[in-house]
Specification:
Strand order of the largest sheet: 10-14-15-13-12-11
Structural class: alpha+beta
Shape: flat
Number of helices: 29
Radius of gyration: 36 Å
Largest sheet: 6 strands, mixed
Number of strands: 18
Amino acid sequence: MAFDADDEILQDFLVEAGEILEKLSEQLVDLEQNPDDSDLLNAIFRGFHTVKGGAGFLQLEALVNCCHSAENVFDILRNHKRKVDSELMDVVLETLDHVNSMFDQVRNGQALTPAPDQLIASLDAFAEPAGETQPREDVPATAPQAADDGGDITDDEFEQLLDALQDGSAAPESPAVADEPAKADSASGGGSGDDDITDDEFEALLDQLHGKGQFAGAVAADESAPAADTGAAASGSESAAGGDDLITDDEFEKLLDELHGKGGAPTTAGAGETGTPAAEPAKAEPAAAPKSEPKKVEPKKTEPKKAEAKPTAAAAPAPARDTSPVAETTVRVDTKRLDDIMNMVGELVLVRNRLQRLGASSEDEHMHKAVSNLDVVTTDLQAAVMQTRMQPIKKVFGRFPRVVRDLARSLKKEVNLVMHGEDTDLDKNLVEALSDPLVHLVRNSVDHGIEAPDVREKAGKPRQGTVTLSAEQEGDHILLAIEDDGAGMDPEVLRRKAVEKGVYEQDAADRLTENECFNLIFAAGFSTKEQISDVSGRGVGMDVVKTKIGQLNGQISIVSKLGKGSRIIIKVPLTLAIMPTLMIMLGDQSFALPLVNVVEIFHLDLTKTNIVDGRECIVVRDKVFPLFHIKRWLVGKGKGQEEPANAHVVIVAMGTKQVGFVVDQLVGQEEVVIKPLGRALQGTPGMAGATITGDGRIALIIDVPSLLQHYS
């Protein structure tokens, strides 16, 4: 096979097997909750079997062996010869970890590291029926499995087929065959002895293996056409078969060996591969065979499943034409190509903004109409391209059942994970970026939030705690929530810890609201755990989570009630590529504030401010907001310029904290395309990137959390 073809097959395997392995993790955890779910057992069996088949084709022996042992375990489980228990699931989940590890090695082009022999031995032990110590015989173990893999025939039908093969030479239902021994011997090359079977018996054998199909057309021709036509049909078949109307004795003996060999899988595979070419030369036999052949074939109408599952060459074209369009409904596209298209759409958005600005200053009606049409088309194109980059957040959620299950077992807790809104779509880059923060938050809910079963029982709660993970779309944002019904957070404990760690003085800590206390857990090095474990306690995780969400232009907030549980809410934009902003002016320079951070805007008399704890503040509707003159940070004060008496104030929010930014001028709302800063400007505090405004100027996009962290 050519290298390109091998590479294409490998890529197909990586895509298909990757999707299967993602599902298996979730399916296995579901199985532990529903051990008698036959559909789930069959789905997991098929998953391991499919991965094994693809790996076998690529000669990945280590992966084949691991999947084969797991497949045997689920064959026993789905046949109800063993029950699912925690010990079995521990071994199977460990096996899946090794399969995933080997799959990553295949993806990276590395040599495979086989699963430990001890693990394979444990799997093989679970592949025995409960209570049995003797290994199973080859034929019963493999034959039903091979039959069930494709859903072709049942175990009973397979046994009947074996009986028919072994008794085929007798053929008691067809006495007509015994009347023609001489003709059959001459047609088969004069072979004699007990091992030889007649042509009629051979045709019947093929019918039993493949159902009526290839030979049926010839039989119908025999019944309705005169002998001359039959001869013509036979000669046509001979030419189609290459003019060779007989097979040699050695080839025939080989066929019989394959049919009667040990193990069900070689039997069916051999019949499928060897029987088909043999059937073509056999078409030439109707000329020499008597009309008793239709009587021989007709009693075999009791095998409809085999005829459907293994269609013959004559029956195949029709269903192939019906199903071929379905296979062409999806196309796999490199994500880099989608990113390039998104960048071009972004440039188109900038051109539209520029034309809108020019159109607004023009009195030409046709110009207005053209710009309006361009706006509609660009908006639709932008939405369509964004949709191609969308992925369901289920790709992230799918890993959590396993995370919660393993963590709960290690902490000896009982935890049930509930998920809502898994089909909510968001940008592919966001799906990848949210993965690690969400994993950490879910682990925190299990470790910090959910109490031990005995503690919950004493508090009047059910022994099993619940962690709820939900996602929903709200406008052009996604809301993610991680909620638990655990112990909740105690503001007093958080205040005390903040003083102990030097985050706040005692007086300042006493003035903190409950929400401000809850937000202390995002401070670097802050943890309420007395002992450091491999799960938590170092005080670095939540700080990293907040930083990551901030980089995504998102917000994170916490609601908690002591004894009832906690709820962490994350709000992120649908896409990172195009962002709605509020354009502002600081002096002569344009800046863009992400609209997700903007709460409200008002005009302010700067002479009516207050000083609290040495910081300038304003009071709006009985709420106190710290006031920051960001022009002093980002532009500086020009010579001879005086501070204005009036200015616009933009209230911005970061989580539950809100502050006021003093700006010189408000330009308006505008969708901008985020462009990364050049190498010389990368890492500039408070800057998330740059964009081109509608009037053709360059505007810097403000990163609010970074700006405050650096300057305030």
